[in-house]
Design a protein that fits this description.
By secondary structure, the chain is an alpha/beta fold. Helix content is 43%, strand content 13%. Helix 2 (19-33) runs parallel beside helix 3. The radius of gyration is 24 Å and the shape is elongated. 36% of the residues are buried. The model has no long low-confidence stretch (mean pLDDT 85).
């Protein structure tokens, strides 16, 4: 029970068939946390793997890591599927007030975890790993079509948030901000974007940490045509969520203007207005 009380930071890792990456991910996270210059103590951090019933040995792998002393646990979901809902489940189960989400495929370098966690504070309630910071060669190891898709998705999201990389899956949020979010889209492609809007994160509460993508060593990419369609659906829902009040106001102004113009036109056609002096 005392160990649970010391946990101030939770790292959430959604996973599906990522068993080959779990051990290097967990060991590299805690190796970074145990460095003398780490701003976050390793014994205050837990790692939660949220697995969508992979049945690939992930649960057994986590059990072995636990026996070796790593503070890691796994949640195996049998009734749900999907990246965003896995992240939400992990945040709900987290013991820490400072929560970080990262991919299992090692493209989010574990060595950045201490810096990302330390960036969270009562005034900086959201931290974003950005590929658009100074000194970062964005997606340098990606094929051209992936770069085009990434850039296009980012441009479509720009009217929604001032964050430089709202498409990033490497992000963190304070628990009190997470709990304020309502109507999260558990089927959406980018949960960070959903949280930025629905938790009403102000621009000055977003801390950004530049990072370069690592290279996937195991498993397969989850980017498919179906995923891209879900992202477009998510964008449509977020635009309505954020701008529906403005749209309704605009429609009211248009209707009132038309009514005034119609009344004016009818007045100009009345017999009194046509009387000649």
């Amino acid at each position: 029970m005392s160990g649970r009380q010391t946990i101030h930071y939770s790292v959430i890792v959604p996973a599906y068939r990522e068993n080959g990456n779990i051990r290097p991910l967990v060991t590299r996270i805690f190796e970074a946390l145990r460095r003398l210059d780490s701003p976050v103590p390793a014994d205050q951090v837990e790692v939660i793997i949220v697995d969508d019933n992979s049945r690939d040995g992930s649960a057994e792998n986590v059990q072995s890591l636990q026996q070796e002393g790593y503070n890691v646990r796994i949640i195996v979901r049998t009734m749900e599927r999907g990246l965003s809902s896995a992240v939400v489940r992990g945040f709900q189960e987290a013991l820490g007030d400072n929560m970080l989400c990262m991919d299992a495929d090692l493209q989010h370098p574990p060595e950045y975890v201490p810096t990302m966690l330390a960036a969270l504070s009562p005034s900086s309630t959201f931290v974003l790993g950005t590929r658009y910071g100074p000194g970062v060669e964005m997606d340098k190891d990606w094929p051209v079509h992936r770069r085009i898709i990434s850039a296009g998705a980012r441009i479509l999201a720009l009217p929604l948030t001032s964050a430089s990389d709202p498409m990033s899956g490497f992000f963190g949020i304070r628990k009190e901000s997470f709990l304020k979010a309502r109507g999260l889209n558990s089927q959406g492609f980018k949960i960070a974007l959903d949280l930025l809007i629905k938790a009403n994160i102000p621009a000055d509460a977003i801390a950004e940490v530049p990072f370069s993508f690592g290279v996937r060593s195991e498993g397969e990419s989850k980017l498919t045509g179906k995923v891209m369609i879900k992202y477009l659906e998510q964008l449509a829902e977020l635009y309505w969520y954020k701008y529906s009040a403005l749209l309704v106001f605009f429609i009211i102004i248009v209707v009132v203007t038309l009514l005034v113009l119609a009344r004016s036109a009818m007045g100009s056609l009345s017999p009194e207005s046509q009387h000649k002096y």
